[in-house]
Amino acid sequence: MACFAATLGVIILAGFLNLSAANQDTCDLYAVVGLQSLLLPFTYDGLANSHVLRWTHNSTIIFYREKGRVSVGKSEDIFIAGSLLLKNLQFSSAGTYRANVLNPNGTLAKTWTQRICMMDKVSKPQLTYMCDPKSSAVNLYCHVASPQGLVFSWILDEKTLTGETRQTLSISLAKLKGETSFTCSVANKVSKEKSDTVRPTCKGPPPPTLFCFTSTTVVAVLAGGVSLILLLLIIIIVLCCCHRRIKTQTRPRELRMLSVNKRESDSISPEYETTHPNEYTENRPAHLSIDSEVKQPSPVPKPRTIPPHTANI
Ligand SMILES: *[C@@H]1O[C@H](CO)[C@@H](O)[C@H](O)[C@H]1NC(C)=O
Ligand SMILES: *[C@@H]1O[C@H](CO)[C@@H](O)[C@H](O)[C@H]1NC(C)=O
User: Fold this and answer.
1) Residue 89 confidence (pLDDT) above 60
2) 91 CA distance to ligand 1 centroid (A)?
3) pLDDT tens digits, 15-32
């Protein structure tokens, strides 16, 4: 029976300790490391020299005044109502601070307890972004050395986005009109820092397939066009050359044919030449001589009669 009571007592005690430990985790005041001074806001109206004032930190007495005499700490750190000024705060300044005021007859007049937590100032975050053409969005990342316990917020064109408290932010490219400015900010209980303003420049939201097409098709079309023009030029040059060659070949042949005709006509009428003056036949154009011979179906009897006739005219 006694054993049972003892174990029950231990269990209850353990529960109490756990409860007090949980309470100790919560902080009443947060202070940044390196802070010059912090006033612990305890006040007792009517505090007199007859009262005993005692301040403790983690159960260590840091200030004691009895009958106007200060035995621990400095009197300039205590204000009239009993508040204490902490100076040059460090991580070791954290902990439980308690103030006790005792009546002249030794009874407790007032007690006050607060737990102070010390924190480092947050460093300035670095805002980076990546364009994601697949989801047509821009992904922003607010980089800090140790993100644990920090609160993130996002400012889009000077306005804070409500409900965006994560370290990353995704915004669709359709929402990016013109020069949208982004700023991220990180905060802990004691400090807040903003990043530099960033204006993401992503290629517009139009279908990415079209964009992919153009780069290759433009090259293909250009190459095709150039080769087509070259082919046409080659064809034109070849045609011109052929045409010129045909012309140069036909001219001598015509002349040869004419001369052959002339020789034939000469051989047909040998008397004609002898009777005619040489100058006359040579001055006449070639085709005329052919005509004259074509018009004369029987050149044999006429040559003798014509020369005198023409000579007379
Ligand atoms: C007081 O206790 C806290 C933990 O509760 C500790 O962080 C701090 O360093 C302690 N300070 C001193 C001076 O013992
Ligand atoms: C102690 O002093 C206070 C005020 O001075 C008074 O209210 C209280 O009753 C006293 N207690 C005793 C036990 O005398």
Assistant:
1) yes
2) 8
3) 343 444 444 468 999 999
- Ligand 2 probe mutation, 105, 108, 110, most atoms within 8 A of CB: 105
Dump pLDDT digits (tens) for 190-246: 999 999 999 998 876 555 444 445 555 555 656 666 677 777 777 777 776 667 765
Residue ranges per structural domain of the chain: 26-119, 126-194, 211-249
Superfamily name and number for 26-119: Immunoglobulins (2.60.40.10)
Mean local confidence (pLDDT), 27-56: 95
Instruction: Give pLDDT tens digits for 285-309.
Output: 444 444 444 445 444 444 454 444 5
pLDDT band for position 6 (50/70/90)? Answer: very low
Report the residue among 101, 103, 108, 110 best suited for mutation to probe ligand 2: largest number of ligand atoms under 8 A from its CB. Answer: 103
- Ligand 2 contacts (CB < 6 A) are 103, 105, 107
CATH T-level topology, domain 126-194: Immunoglobulin-like (2.60.40)
26-119 and 126-194, same CATH topology: yes
Q: Does 95 contact ligand 1 (Cβ within 6 A)?
A: yes
| SS3 sequence of the chain | CHHHHHHHHHHHHHHHHHHHHHHHHCCCEEEECCCCEEEECCCCCCCCCCCEEEEEECCEEEEEEECCEEEECCHHHECCCCCEEEECCCHHHCEEEEEEEECCCCCEEEEEEEEEEEECCCCCCEEEEEEECCCCEEEEEEECCCCCCCEEEEEECCEECCCCCCCEEEEEHHHCCCCCCEEEEEECCCCEEECCCECCCCCCCCCHHHHHHHHHHHHHHHHHHHHHHHHHHHHHHHHHHHHHHHHHHHHHHHHHHHHHHHHHHHHHCHHHHHHCCHHHHHHCCHHHHHHHHHHCCCCCCHHHHHHHHHHHC
The mean pLDDT value for 37-53 works out to 95
Q: Which ligand is nearest to the CA of 110?
A: 2
